Hints:
The protein is α/β, with parallel strands linked by helices.
Amino acid sequence: MDIRQVDLNLLKVFDALLRKRHVTQAGASIGLSQPAMSYALSKLREMFGDPLFVRTGRGMEPTPRAQALGDPVARLLDLVQVEILPAPEFRPAESSRNFVLCMSDIGEMVFLPRLQSFLAKTAPHISIKTVALSMPDLEEGLASGDVDLAIGYFPGLNSESLKRKSLYRHEYVCIARDDHPQIGGTLSLDQYKEAAHVVVHADGREQDVLERAHERLKIRVNVRFSVPRFIGVPFIVAGSDMIAAVPQAVGRRFAEFVNVKLLPLPFPAPTYDFYLHWHPRFHHEPANRWIRDAMSDLIKGPMRLEPLANTKRMRMNTAS
């Protein structure tokens, strides 16, 4: 093949088709109509002398030739974008970019309100979409650019091909309703063991840290409710005599709108690190760099928490 026959725009179409496996979706991701994508695909087939993509019930499946071309084409496009073409300046105040963030319900509860306030002042036209993905889908989304950042605790996201930045360390506390009949201002280990618990099994992300601490210390808890997300925990605890161990930032958020108190755990509190994750492909992209810096400032800066004794006063001030 003569290099003069190679059209970089066609390679961009090829890369989008390989990622999306759907002509219309691939076109939408690079701003081309369905007819324009079909025409480009026909030119690609002619250029490479191969069907490249075959329509099946699961979408456009790549041929072996297309699979072999995938990584070289992606590297070539990255080289052109990062090292050859000058990066355009990102102007957040003027941008209408939609950022896709993968985070748990913890992140949504604690950090999205901060992000909303920040964007309202600095980037009013930017929109945010959050997603919850399995580890394989998340790694693929970060690599393709369909997901801009993963924010939180993702122990399964340990690929060496990803970049990450530690923001702060979560520490666990216990929450109980304010007028709990057996638990006052402190919590003993016997009370912790005897109380009925609400536990969260959130896709292997947060609660496994607590479970490992229980196993290490030979603490057996009385699990009454097991739920997949944190969002229902404060309402169950506030309306019952059950207790729950939760990350401190989440417990403080709960205490702002339901009748719960925060108590130190009666054993060394387990901790875990909270990270930003992104793909090296977008490390130098101005928009990705901007949202990384913004989330880092919003999450890392405000995490200097008051002593637990001040929680009730903090909730009363918030309510007023």
